[in-house]
Design brief:
The protein has helices spanning 26-42, 80-87, 120-130, 135-149, 164-176, 194-209, 221-227, 245-256, and strands spanning 4-16, 53-65, 69-73, 95-100, 104-107, 182-186, 213-217, 230-235, 238-244, 272-273, 277-286, 294-296, 301-309, 318-325, 330-335, 350-357, 365-375, 379-394. With 436 residues, the protein is of the alpha/beta class. Strand 14 and strand 15 (330-335) form a beta hairpin.
């Protein structure tokens, strides 16, 4: 039976808006201690109003077993980072209790524990010591740490000259080589390049196979799905779901998606752009031009893009769209100007462009539409992720009663099979392949 290494009971953390938690040196502590009576005197009788307080976590309870790899998902401000900071003992809980069995290594922010004036070599020893490694332990693993970080040529260069990606490489490498029982990782991999992200995820997978526990916070649902078997969904500081990774991700993304027809895309957050020409609405319609968000394999789909011109200096643009899964896997792509030769010229302050897909080739599942207005290969004018969400309800490609869903493939098509030698088709003899 697995041993419980993390137990969180009724954990709550409250912050006062506009007040920083301070973690200073001994001198700062002495000064704060001497001035504390005067600060208390000034604040005597002044209690913070409820509007000044915010609960980053509220009544969170969970258990993690040894060797588990648990993903923690949720929107920005949901309490994910606060939870890891409490588990790392960086901040104290306001209410509740946390029990941890084993040594903890945490990688919460890029370059945590690094001194900008010191070289990479010096920071390995400094950061390793902060994480609890002895000097002898660091010396034994030094070559492996440097090799994993892939910055051998810059190891004796001050880290203030490193890019954020180099910071991540070195910081993760040190934390990964600490022989801790528990590893806490918070979204730092988003800064690294794709190859290094894959390498880090592989490393965390090996860590888990070795019986160590990993808590992994990320907005990359593909990475969470590939690494974890269990996922915890936090929302507004509360635990909304704790279960199988696929179920937790689906519930979180469905709740976070804009699934209503005619949603005001203009008010949605932009990936980039939105100042000159702005996408205001995206409608999904069936082949009869009726608004819907439910389709079947092979149905016609019509996309209507509504836009508004804010700067008449942009005289031309193209529309590109990508249909992706809720976990971010790209499935279909199209552009109004695939070779940059056919561009849209707005003739008014607003307009509507229509794109028709004659036969939707998608398997059963839920999908999102990401949109981009651009000058191809030159400028991204307006980019919106999740401008619309839709579902494919049935995918009986060959009319046999068997539905293909996204667990088998995202895109599929009807095929025709022939037997040339060494076998025969039971269907040709009108035999029942499932009969006696």
């Amino acid at each position: 039976m697995s041993e419980t290494v993390i137990r969180v009971e009724n954990l709550s953390k409250q912050y006062r808006i506009g007040v920083k938690e301070r973690y200073g040196c001994l001198r700062d502590s002495l000064v704060q201690g001497l001035t504390a009576p005067f600060r208390r005197l000034r604040r005597f009788g002044q209690k913070p109003s409820p509007d000044e307080m915010i609960w980053a976590l509220k009544d969170v309870s969970l258990e993690v077993q040894q060797g588990e790899v648990v993903g923690i998902i949720g929107r920005n401000g949901a309490g994910k980072s606060t939870l890891l900071k409490v588990l790392s003992r960086i901040t104290e809980p306001t209410e509740g209790e946390v029990r941890i069995r084993g040594r903890v290594a945490s990688l919460l922010e890029v370059g945590t524990g690094f001194h900008p004036e010191l070289t990479g070599r010096e920071n390995i020893f400094l950061n390793g010591a902060i994480l609890g490694m002895s000097r002898k332990e660091i010396e034994c693993k030094f070559d492996d740490i440097v090799a994993f970080s892939e910055i051998e040529k810059l190891i004796d260069t001050p880290v203030k000259r490193y890019s954020s990606g180099m910071y991540v490489r070195l910081a993760f490498s040190v934390a990964a080589h600490l022989e801790s029982e528990i590893l806490l990782v918070d979204e730092v991999l988003a800064v690294g390049d794709a190859a290094f992200q894959k390498k880090c995820l592989g490393n965390m997978g090996e860590v888990a196979k070795g019986g160590r526990t990993v808590l992994f916070v990320s907005h990359n649902m593909g990475a969470v799905r590939g690494l974890c078997k269990r996922a915890i969904w936090l929302d507004n500081g509360q635990l909304r779901m704790d279960g199988i990774v696929a179920d937790s991700i689906a519930a979180y993304l469905t709740a976070s998606s804009f699934i209503d027809q005619g949603v005001n895309v203009e008010q949605m957050p932009r990936v980039t752009g939105g100042r000159d020409i702005r996408l205001t609405r995206l409608e999904l319609l069936n082949g009869s031009a009726q608004p819907t968000r439910h389709f079947r394999y092979g149905d016609a789909m019509i996309m209507r893009f509504y836009f508004r011109v804010l700067n008449t200096g942009h005289r031309y643009f193209a529309i590109e769209w990508v249909i992706s899964t809720l976990t971010g896997d790209r499935v279909l792509y199209a552009s109004s100007s695939p070779q940059g030769a056919v561009l849209i010229k707005p003739t008014d302050s607003s307009g509507c462009i229509e794109c028709r897909i004659p036969h939707l080739p998608l398997a059963v599942g839920t999908y999102r539409v990401n949109c981009l207005l651009s000058l191809p290969h030159q400028e991204r004018i307006d980019e919106v992720e999740g401008a619309a969400t839709f579902e494919v309800l049935t995918c009986d490609v060959c009319g046999t009663g068997f539905n293909v869903d996204h667990r088998l493939a995202f895109v599929t098509t009807c095929t025709h099979w022939s037997v040339f030698s060494g076998a025969k088709s039971l269907f040709d003899d009108h035999e029942d392949p499932f009969g006696p």
